[in-house]
Amino acid sequence: MFRFVLKLLGANGAAGFTQLIYTVTALPLAPFRFVFGTNSVGSSIFEWSTLLAMLVYYFVALALIKAFAMSRSVNEIEADQGLREQDRG
Fold first, then answer.
1. What is the pTM of this model?
2. Could you tell me if 43 and 11 are in contact, meaning their C-beta atoms sit under 8 angstroms apart?
3. Which of 58, 68, 87, 89 lies at a 20 to 30 A Cα distance from 15?
4. Helix 16-29 to helix 48-71 angle, to the nearest 10 degrees?
5. Residue 3 burial (10 A CB sphere; 0-12, 13-18, 19+)
6. Which residues contact 9 (CB under 8 A, 6 or more apart)?
7. Cα 14 from chain centroid?
8. Contacts for 13 with CB less than 8 Å, ≥ 6 apart
9. What is the pLDDT of residues 56-83, one digit of tens each?
């Protein structure tokens, strides 16, 4: 998210914080780097690949959270309470 905003606002690539963000995010973005092109106007860059990566990683995280929640053991009382809440709403 920081990378996308910094690129969009045309942040100075020589600034320390900007370099840190670009370096840290380079590896997770590598698989998506050339899926889409980039649009630029002046110093502002709109990276479609960064948006795609954020979307993919969001769904991966969501799936992992759901899988973890499903693997958790539940006792009868918790199950009964969950079913009652589900029926109510």
1. 0.72
2. no
3. 58
4. 60
5. buried
6. 44
7. 25
8. 19, 22
9. 999 999 999 999 988 878 788 888 888 8
